Task: structure prediction
Amino acid sequence: MAKRGAALNAAMALAFAVLVFYPRMAWAEGNAAHGERLFGQYCAGCHGPDGRGGAHTFMPHVDTLTKKGYIDQMPDEYLAFVIGEGGAASGKSAYMPAWKSKLSEQDIQDIIAHIRSLPNF
Result:
């Protein structure tokens, strides 16, 4: 239990740092339908088609993006940082690649809009 609390504190500290130091982008609203297609292509292999993790196509197994009380607390800027810069840069798994060379800022915003449209469990 202490590990989970420490991990949550570290994630929140990183989110704060991203908000302060990562350049703010003036983003248009994300297109969740386009984000769904991109998520299917780039993210679902590890995060599962429904964002619940457990795709079991990759080790280590990825936890859910749709956990109630988790993703809804993460600012869009933080999620954009994680997607764009990858897991290692954000204190998460180094197995998650940085997608900024493959996805535009708008593509990343569209993926975030799709993730936010997924039901929480």
In short: The CA atoms of residues 4 and 99 lie 27 Å apart.
